[in-house]
Amino acid sequence: MSNPLELWNAFRTHLCDDILHRVRQETNNSEIQFTEEIFNEGLILLEDIVFTLGEKRLKEFGLPEPQRNNSNIDNLLYLRETTYNIDELQAYLQENEVKLNTEQKIVYDEIMNSVEDNKGNIYFIDAPGGTGKTFVTSLILAKIRSQKKIAIAVASSGIAATLLSGGRTAHSTFKLPLNVSLDQNSVCSLRKNSNTGKLLRQASLIVWDECTMSHKSHIDAVNRTLKDLRTSEKVMGGITLVFTGDFRQTLPVVPKGTRADIIKVCMKKSEIWQHVQKLRLNINMRVHLREDQNLEQFAQYLLKIGDGCISITQNGYINISDNVGTCVRTIDQIIDNVYPDIENLPQKETNWLCERAIVTAKNKAAEEINEAVSRKVTTEYETYKSIDTMVNGDEAIHYPIEFLNSLKPLGLPLHELRLKVGTP
Length: 424
Description:
Elements: H1 4-15, H2 17-27, H3 36-54, H4 71-81, H5 86-96, H6 102-116, E1 122-126, H7 133-146, E2 151-155, H8 158-162, E3 168-169, H9 170-174, H10 195-202, E4 205-209, H11 216-229, E5 240-245, H12 259-264, E6 276-280, H13 285-290, H14 293-306, H15 331-338, H16 350-354, H17 363-376, E7 381-385, H18 401-406, E8 416-420
Parallel strand pairs: 1-5, 1-6, 2-3, 2-4, 4-5
Antiparallel strand pairs: 7-8
């Protein structure tokens, strides 16, 4: 190629079109145009591909060298948080505010009052699954953004972050310290003159979902950082902050830690917990809308387990009540209960499959169940195999193809898939 730079200048808008599309989707604003930050992200992706193929940098081809510090991400974050589509937000609010139930409306109004009156209150919404936590927080975020104010949404896990409009992980937004055990006075790696620092100074609200998973030192580090960024001695720098989660579910991970070790690093042991106002959502809307008494009883039973109201055996186990469900001892039994007559799957309606599922906590168990279900279905199967190779050819001698085929990395399918049409 005689002139890569000329090619880049001619087609960079086409090459970066997907990045622009993503930014528009994240902000619900179709009016955003190309910026240098978007082109810079395109150059980063392009250089990653070139380096993988030939271990060369773009500057060796006469192309602009991408800026690989956090500033490009920083700028995109600032662009997103300041360019939401106001008309779409107002339409969303008009459609959904009327759907709030009584207790959701109380939570909504309490938090909005704190923001509008600059009270800087800190809240924890205790919200068991199904009570509408995401619905309420999404409305609060939309309301504040519709007023051209800044509302930042973070979560302790990537999956939870995807459920919130504009959501990112707490680690990426706050640049949380990686080693929480070294320094109890640690702060986040944020510079005052960065765009993220500017956002946090201007923000009217922060929503932190699944906060119960977070180490207390991370929460305390954010507290110290916000005080510094906002030049305020108030808790969290005087910003209204809404924590949401459920302590009955996931707690911080302490490698090889005991129950006492886990409790010691929980959010409730944070230096800010004494300032937190507790709000609660009780009505399980998923169950309430179904009007099924059995589902209501099951939901209450789960809450009793989470609240420690169910007796525990000497070994630390909970004896599940007989009326909760059917007890099975083999994989075949659970398949027969969930998918009766699965041998005649081709004759089943699509809705029949949509109404049932087997859920398991471990990938190994999922593989065994999938294989067992597939064996019961009588249709022909097709076999598909992955092509596994080493990126660095010099290392191939140390990692035979058979070894690569045997790996089972999280989030990727197995090397060999046997698929049958219609199988769950």
